[in-house]
Each structure stands twice: as structure tokens, then as C-alpha cells.
Amino acid sequence: MSPILNTVVLFALAAGISLSGSFLSGSMYLWTDQEGVKHFSNIAPPLNGEAQLLSEEKFTLPKGHQFNVVKIFDGDTIRVEGFGLKFTIRLVGIDTPELGKKGEKNQPYSQEAKEKLTQLIGKKTISLKQYGTGGYNRVLAEIFVNATNINLEMVRAGLAEVYQGKLPNRLDKNLYFQTEKLAKHSLDGMWAQGTAYESPRLWRKKFPLK
Fold it and tell me: How many domains in the chain?
């Protein structure tokens, strides 16, 4: 959709308040696109158009800020809106089976993963714990419905593995790996495939996006 959005900045600017929480510092850019949607980026302003530079400012991440889920792409990627903003979130720390793109076949249990995430967050408001930004201009975040960590629920259901790439330092990795171990032991969800199981990371290498 657009350059990276940052939930740390968006609330502080949109609401005009400062609350205690995690801090982010560095150069940030603020602009509004042609559709009137506000964007915040800690990487670069849009290629065309003007952006306000928010340099060396510190913003706080408030607790309990709520966003509406407007689209669920698959088991680990969603789009949300709130405070006049729309942006895409990649559920941090997890990886779910891949839905086929442009006619490619689905990875086993990919549809089940999407359905599970829909069951957990569809038509609900969520709060975020943000871990920066990742590929495809997505906010990396743990998402919560009330006190329930949805990222962990996907692992617990056996429909997500712990992400095999680099994990954020602040993420409770041990909790994620322990949860995955229990799901594997119980053969829940995708783990029922046994030795036929392939990680989403390997699947993407076999069937890269065109």
C-alpha cells in the first residue's frame, strides 16, 4: 500500500498526548496520501510528494490503543485501521503456511491458519505491541484481544511455527518455542503431517512470489 507506518508515532501525533511506554528515536516522516490516509515512516518519505520530517523526536507507545481489523490476508498478515490510519501488520515471531498467490497451490493448512486467525480476531478490536517494521512495509507486532496474545494462540493451535529468521530482542522467544514444542508433541494442526511437514520458509523458496 504505502511506505512504512509506525504505531509508536501514530498515536502520539494523532491523539496529541504522551504516555509512558517504549520509546523510539530517530528521523520520522509524516505525510498524507492522495486518498487522505496519514502515513508515518522511519525509512523514507514517498517517492513523489512532500513529507514533514520529524527529526530526532521521541514518542511513546501507549497501552491499550485499539484498532479495527479490516482485512485478514492469511494466517500472519492483517490490515487494521484506527485514528484515521490504515496499515498492514505482520504478526511478529510466527510464520504460518503460505496461501498460493496468482494460481499457485496452497501450502497444506494455510487455509486453516487463515480461518483460525479470522476466528480469533474477526470483527474485533485489537491492541498492539510493536517491534519495528519488516519487509513489504509492514509493522511487526504482537496483537492482543483483551489480554490474549493472538500470535501465541496461532502457535498453540499448531497453525504457526516460530519464525526461523531473526527475532526481535524484546520478544519472549522462550515462551514461543515452549508453546511450539507443546503443539508439536500433541500433533496439533499442521504438525499432524509428521515428516511430511515443510516450514513456510522452505515453501517460499520452492514457490517464490512472481
Answer: 2
Task: Specify whether 80 is located in the same domain as 35.
Answer: no
pLDDT tens digit sequence for 156-199:
999 999 999 999 988 999 999 999 999 999 999 999 999 999 99
CATH number at residue 111: 2.40.50.90
Instruction: Tell whether 1 is covered by a domain.
Output: no
Separation of alpha carbons 127 and 147, rounded Å: 9
Q: Are residue 159 and residue 191 in the same domain, yes or no? A: yes
Decide: 88 and 78 in contact? Cβ < 8 Å.
yes
Q: Which residue has the cell 494460481?
A: 103
pTM (two decimals): 0.72
Query: Is the CA virtual torsion 68, 71, 74, 77 positive or negative?
Result: negative
Active-site residues: which are they? 90, 98, 138
52-60, strands of its sheet edge to edge = 38-41, 23-32, 52-60
